[in-house]
Structure formats: structure tokens, C-alpha cells
């Protein structure tokens, strides 16, 4: 069985653009004979959609877009798409009106829907505000079109569903452990659809946790993560797959969109080795990649084409200018020097030298009269 991860960079609320990127990934998957395509958590609307989910017209538009996408996708690829789905029971039983869901789209239809079980409400997360937690153990069945005897049971989880192993964390944060339930259900491997925000050292922690989980339950795991900057959050990608021994068999690129393929070998019940993108060599390199991604996406997604910033000759403005030049291109950055009687010649020279090194334009404003 061939699997692909579409490591996407959605724009929150832009349903048409996000659906198009999912479609393009599915078309690429079809060309490469992929059986199952994974996309990140809430890939159709982007994460985090926040109070857009309180607008009934937005939720309705998302449902329409999902149906349209199902009809457009290649019929030979099973595609898992992150979306918000109505909680019909909320009308009679109470609870939140939506689920954080993954929809299985295949042969023009929505075949199955899986709901997130564990909803984080801490740090940057506020999912209990919008979603109802689900209690079902989620899995799909894959039957090979070329081999009638090949049937696989694939566990489906969404982000936080992976983050509740008491053996790893030392205590359980939620009553249920979806991974343990899936292991008991006898799944062949587990997929996880995530929108996991970046912080320093996050990928190392993820890989340690996934390694522990794969070994504990003896189940291969595929982790599909969102990439991109959305307002105050940065998502670093680094999608990954591990075999039953907890070894990394493939990894997507850091802070970039990517399309990653791997293969599940039925006789061995495990993943075969695939391409493994390198991780940042140092903490500084990791932070640099995230800052460039965040600034670049903030400008692009807000439709800003140019950046104006102050150049003082100091370290702070030098770092900001370097990030801006890398993120949106040096030709789109203007450095402004505001010269006064108290500005040292060395500061001016340092600012101009920085601009030359980066290839950015400068403009000098004399502010001595304004200070009088």
C-alpha cells in the first residue's frame, strides 16, 4: 500500500484556495499510484479557524466545498481531509455544534467521517470553545483493488489524540487513550492529522513521543503536520513516519510545503524506508527557519508586497532586516535611516553596510529639525 502526506500551508478561511491545494496534491498522488493521501488537521479551512466557526454561513460553505472537492478528486486515491462537521446530536442532547473531523473522500463521495476525541484547551489551544469531543475508536478499512486478499485496518487520529500516553508523560491528561483503543482494535498502522504549532525543540519532542508510542503498541505511525504562519502561530511541518521499532522511515521538510511518500509492506506489517529530510543542525538554525516562515507568511497572507523598517546600525534592526530580506526578497525591503545630531557616524556606516550586504534599498530622513 502506497501512502502520501500532503504537508500543506493553508490560508485560514480561504476554502477555495485550500481545496485547490488538496486537489493538486491528490492529482500528484494519483500520478504516482498512491492509494491513501493524508492532509493536516482542518486542512480545508486552515488551523486555527477560531471564531469563523461561530458563523453558520462559513460552516455551510465548508460543507459545500467538501462535497465539491469529493467530486473533483481522482477516484483511485482515498483522501483524508481535515474539516469541521456538524454535531447533529447537539440539537437534542446539548453539547457543542461541531466536531473537529477528518473526512474520507473516495470515488466522488464522503465515505466516512472520523471525529477528534481529545480537545486541547491550554496554552494556545481553545478547542472546547468550538468542538464536541467524540468517543468512538476511529479506523478505516483499505481493500487493495489489485489483491482481493489484502485488507488493512488503519487507525485514524487527530493531533491531540496522540498526546495522552501516561507511560511517556508520567500521567494521563484525559480519561481515554485513543492509541491504546486502536491497538486493542487490531489496526495495522495509525495515521495522525495534525496542526501542531512550533516551539523550540518541538520536533525532537514529537519524535521521542512517537518513537515511544510505536514501540509500546507495536504499531507503525504516520504523522501529517500543517506548515505555515497563521497570525501568532507558526507550524513547522516536519511530517514523519516511524516503523514498529520506532525508527524514522521518512520525514517531510521543515518550514516548507512538501509531498512525502512511503509504502506499507503487508507481509512484514511495517513501513519500508523512504526519503528522510534533514532536521536543523542547531537551535539557531531551527529558530531562523521558523522566523523566516512566520514573517513571509504574514506578509503573503495579508497581501503585503513590501516591507519598510528602521535601520539603526544596531543588532536588533540588523536581525529584523535579514529576516525580512530572506522572507519576502531583498528587492521588497526598504531600510529607513533617521539621522539626528546624536547619531554616530559608526551607526550610519554599519546600517549602510548591512543594506549593501543584504541587497536592500535605503532612504535617509534627517530628523534634526523635528527634534528642535
Low-confidence stretches: none
- C-alpha termini separation: 75 Å
Number of helices: 10
- In terms of structural class, how would the helical and strand content be classed? alpha/beta
What is the 3D shape?
Answer: elongated
User: What is the overall pLDDT average?
Assistant: 95
Order of helices and strands: EHEHEHEEEEHHEHEEEEEEEHEHEHEH
Main β-sheet, spatial strand arrangement: 5-4-3-2-1-14-15
Beta-strand proportion: 25-35%
Number of strands: 18
The helicity comes to 25-40%
Characterize the main sheet.
7 strands, mixed
Radius of gyration: 23 Å
From the structure above, extract its key features.
six-stranded mixed sheet; seven-stranded mixed sheet; 372 residues
Q: What topology does this entry show?
A:
Blueprint: E1 2-7, H1 15-31, E2 36-38, H2 56-72, E3 78-86, H3 90-93, E4 98-106, E5 109-115, E6 139-143, E7 151-158, H4 166-169, H5 178-184, E8 189-194, H6 202-217, E9 221-225, E10 227-230, E11 233-236, E12 240-242, E13 248-251, E14 258-265, E15 270-271, H7 283-301, E16 307-310, H8 315-328, E17 333-339, H9 345-358, E18 361-366, H10 368-371
Parallel strand pairs: 1-2, 2-3, 7-8, 8-9, 16-17, 17-18
Antiparallel strand pairs: 1-14, 3-4, 4-5, 6-7, 9-12, 10-11, 12-13, 14-15
Helix pairs in contact: 1-2, 7-8, 8-9
